[in-house]
Fold these 4 entries.
Entry 1:
Amino acid sequence: MLAACFVLSVATISTSQAQVHVNVNIGSQPLWGPTGYDNVDYYYLPDLEMYYYVPQHQFIYQSNGRWVYTNNLPPRYRNFDLYSAHKVVVNGPKPYMHFDQDRRNYARFRGERGRQEVIRDSRDPKYFVVKGHPHYNERGRGDEHGHDHDDHGRH
């Protein structure tokens, strides 16, 4: 009976710890990222068949059979519009290890343009912490015009 209680206690502790840990990285997401996600590890870009790693701000793509990490799009995509292209949020480590599966699963989004609201165009104050947002402020607070208020509502 004592052993059963001990196991139950351990399970309860593990469950409560898992529920407490919440990762939010809105401020790290690019302006061209889709709205609606508090945490994003990677975006899969079906049109380019590559990934974007949000924490390191790196594009990840295959070249000559190996994965390349770079802060800029490859030259052949320099004029590609990331704002209008479809992005698929992929959370978890090294999604490119499942590239063939992602390419098949998300092929239907190739060529889809302008259907996702992007962070740059959002009026939701939670995105005001993203550098470059038209209403940017470091604390992520402010009115719809990006003005900070003191505790009494004054500018």
Note: The first strand starts at residue 42 and ends at 45.
Entry 2:
Amino acid sequence: MISKLVAASAAIALLGVTAAQAQTRNTARSSLRLVQAQCPGMPAGPCAPGISFTGGTAQITRVKEPRAVSNTQFGRINLNGVFPLPASTLTAQVSGTQIYGSDPDADCPLAGTQVTGLFGTSTMTCIPQGPTARCRGKLFFTAPTAPQCSDVLRTIADITVEVYDSASVGDPAGLIAVPGMAILGRTPDCDSGGAGCP
């Protein structure tokens, strides 16, 4: 599944609205469900088997105009039912392919290029809720848009979100969550002729 985040930095003319309209305009939003990160092995299993959670999401919001040059927040992330209780924080990293469009005044060095790699991060604060914790944080671009690129349409595709134990960022052994689907398996009811029965 490809998720896209469009950040048209301060390009009011591209949107065909005034600055006042742009400030109050609703933003597009997309959510990625987070599941326990699975690592290959014999047998395959969770990358960080000592940490579990019941659910989570990364919510990505289109950057608002016309403040995109200075407004580096682009979403929120949370994990619920984290067990055992984390020491304090978790760290999220967001990667993808940034595709820069054409530049009307030809002063943006990134115009017409693609850049792949890390572009966002979050420090997720964990709040105990009984024996588990809820960990949440805001997603921020790792760097603000350069002023000379503020009129260039930027599309981010192939987005990947990774949540780590803060002591093991980048280490597969500390990878807790990634986008995905959790499909629950059930034992067939063979007494009533359920599917999968002999």
Note: The chain has one domain: 5-15+29-181.
Entry 3:
Amino acid sequence: MNIGVLCPKCGLMQMNQEACKSCGAPLSDSAPAPSLSFVPSTPQEIQYAPDPPSPHSPPLKGGAENVAAARLSFHGKGGELFGIYLINIFLSLVTLGIYYFWGKVKIRNYLFSHTEFWQERFVYRGTGKELLVGFLKALVLFFIPLYALNAAPALLETGLVFQAVATGLTYGIVMVFVPLAMVGARRYRLSRTSWRGIRFSFRGGAWGFIKIFGLGSILSTITLGLYFPFFDAKRYNFMVSQSYFGNRKFGFDGMGKDLFRSFLFAIFLTLPTLGLYWFWYWAKRQRYYWEHTSCGPARFRSTVTGRALMNLHLANFLIALVTLGLGWPWILTRKIRFVCKYLTLEGLMDLAEIRQDAKQANATGEALSGFLDADFSLG
């Protein structure tokens, strides 16, 4: 059964149509994509057409004939997102900020619905009401008590001992709530995201991540930051290895020690390169993390480079500076398109074995992450 054609320009497989959805190249004279045969007695396996080899890409392990690769693609446009952004600002002002949560959902709906993998778009199923309720819960459980604890010494005119105790308690509460917010936000966002009708989920316990975060923060401080690569890898490992697509678990087999020498090298080159060498370190970190992340038998691969990462951030900084922040929609779409450009999934995905296994989650952690700026991103 023939399922489409290969684009002669970008090499991505497309359904039978006149032009490539990714690059716009005409498909009339394109070669047909490899046929897929399905045997009723065996599970359905979807095999991705391999991308054309790049001179800058490392050789594929196991031989190209045994490896399939699929790339994410993003079809959103900064101008379209800017229109949504302006409407959100106007309605948020009119409703005294209440519409902000519904506007946030509209933006996420747009971004997910324009991100495609294997001819299927992602779907975001969160609601503005959930975000509003989560915000109110976080306000009562975290922000008001923390504000009261900070204001009490000044209002009560207490001594230095009481002020020191209040300050210590404040830092202690923040150290607990930051990892709690990161876990809660990830649990909520994955539970509201689906692909091919199957939802993602996160099943890690908050207490386990609190211990990783607390110990890692202490050791990083004591070692003047030298423990950070180990701490960073443990955080990433927890977030990835507790994530699921339906009943299929993600995996991570990376180690912080593998990045330690590169981290030291980046520290030594900070002054000579005016800090620019950190882009090369973060690119290596992204490549390493993705290449040690798996979903069943399939593994991710990133080809991002330090120069490409530097150009992205410097250009985004100039856009934000010139437009006085109004270019944010273009910056956001550029970031997503950048990730999609350099990231692929290699291997076979046996979709017949993946079953719906959604888990419940509320938006309180999502709201806490907004209060604390404690978001977590994969790569």
Note: The radius of gyration is 23 Å.
Entry 4:
Amino acid sequence: MILVEGKMSWQPLVAAVIASIWMVECREARAQADRPTIVTVCAPCHGTDGAGRDIETPNLAGQSGIYLYNQIIAFQKGTRRHPAMRGIARELTENEIREIVGYYAILPPP
């Protein structure tokens, strides 16, 4: 509760929580609307929501864009090893990498 005009009130706290939830939902909706087509390559394992599908698959949502970019480049070069990711990363163009990174970096963490 919050003290408002000498009285305890839940209203400001409730309003703040609702506003916070609304901002997260708007961010998620914007990300979904702006989802590049290339994300369909990542979705089978990482989901369009960026949540890894099993313990072996990392979450991408909310990760730093620089981190995501560097990992994809490491898979391309073979300095980070994973058979499926190496094959996928090698086929990505610079623009596609940037689209993937930009998309997953703005999603809220799962």
Note: The longest strand covers residues 2-4.
